[in-house]
Amino acid sequence: MRRTLTDPIEDFFEMRDRLYRLLDESFTAAQPESAPSFSPPVDILAGDEEVVILVELPGMNREDVSVEVRNGTVSIRGERPADGDGQFYLRERPSGAFSRSFSLAWELNPESVSAKLEEGVLRVSVARRERTIAVQVRSEA
């Protein structure tokens, strides 16, 4: 049996290509067509009269998002549809449903909620309620 000499660099590139194909087939076949749910980044600002929640939602429409305030909890839900048809080669932009809820330390007025989606940022404003505490004075006679 006669051995043929091969180029080690060519062998390396062939092995690399086989490994890439194996990894691509292993991971892309197991993934569903849509990316998993995601969690958009949020900032919460507390002023003297209101609480403002800023949520990054680039590419979404206001019809895709809902906001609810109940019992001191602000819930934001939505769904970003997947873009494009076919097999993704690279996918970093998340799609799918998301849900974020925040139990805040302040009493909120649920009737005062306003939400505005502008330039990919959802701005939710909720007025804070005044908290009055009755002070009882015990007279010592």
Describe this structure in words.
- The protein is of the alpha+beta class and 141 residues long.
- It has a domain at 42-127: Immunoglobulin-like.
- The chain contains 1 helix and 7 strands; from the N terminus they run αβββββββ.
- It has one helix at residues 8-30; strands spanning 42-46, 50-56, 65-70, 73-80, 96-103, 114-118, 121-127.
- The strands form 2 sheets. It has a 4-stranded antiparallel beta sheet with strand order 1-2-7-6, with no helix packed on it. A 3-stranded antiparallel beta sheet has the order 3-4-5, with no helix packed on it.
- A hairpin with a 2-residue loop joins strand 6 (114-118) and strand 7.
- The longest helix is centred in the N-terminal third of the chain and has 23 residues, at 8-30.
- The radius of gyration is 27 Å and the shape is elongated.
- The model has no long low-confidence stretch (mean pLDDT 82).
Largest sheet: 4 strands, antiparallel
Could you estimate the helical fraction of the residues in percent? 10-25%
The overall strand count is 7
The arrangement of helices and strands along the chain is HEEEEEEE
Residue windows where pLDDT falls under 50 for at least 5 positions: none
pLDDT averaged residue by residue: 82
